[in-house]
Amino acid sequence: MKIIIINGPNLNLLGKRETAIYGKQTFEEYYKILQLKFPQVTLEYFQSNIEGELITKIQEVGFTYDGIILNAAAYTHTSIGIGDAIKAIETPVIEVHISNTFSREEFRHHSFISANAKGVILGFGLKSYELALQSFL
Questions:
Q1: Which of 22, 30, 65, 129 is catalytic?
Q2: Residue range(s) defining the domain that contains residue 120
């Protein structure tokens, strides 16, 4: 099984930014733990702060991978293009958020991704990614 985790803007700063919300662990540290925990999965990781690069990566893997775990971060609430890219591909997408977006600012309550995603997992910290991985197994 081949699954990719795609992270959007500012998630490269995990462990440094807003640690009260996002924790002190970097994503790279957590990714190594996921690889050890799920050795039966070919797991890849991609992060970009650029909307177009995220769309390009979704299109690249969207017909050949078994699953996409997507945390589009702030683009979740603004990017019609990412939502359309998910609609255009065949690979199922799980939308993931580290925080509970519904307990935050009002603008974070809307997602352009959810309608085209297989499912949405939010509010469980980094464990949200593990839950998404388990949903594919």
A1: 22
A2: 2-136
pLDDT tens, residue by residue, 77-134:
889 999 999 999 999 999 999 977 755 667 666 788 999 999 999 989 999 999 999 9
Active-site position among 30, 65, 75, 97: 97
- The tokens for 89 are 């591909």
CATH number of the domain residue 60 falls in: 3.40.50.9100
Confirm whether 129 is a catalytic residue: no
Give all strands (DSSP E) within 8-65, no chain letters.
42-47
Q: Is 22 tagged catalytic?
A: yes
How many distinct structural domains can be found in the chain?
1
pTM for this structure? Answer: 0.92
Would you call 39 exposed, middle or buried from its count of C-beta atoms within 10 A (0-12, 13-18, 19+)?
A: exposed
28-63 pLDDT, tens digit per residue, is 999 999 999 999 999 999 999 999 999 999 999 999
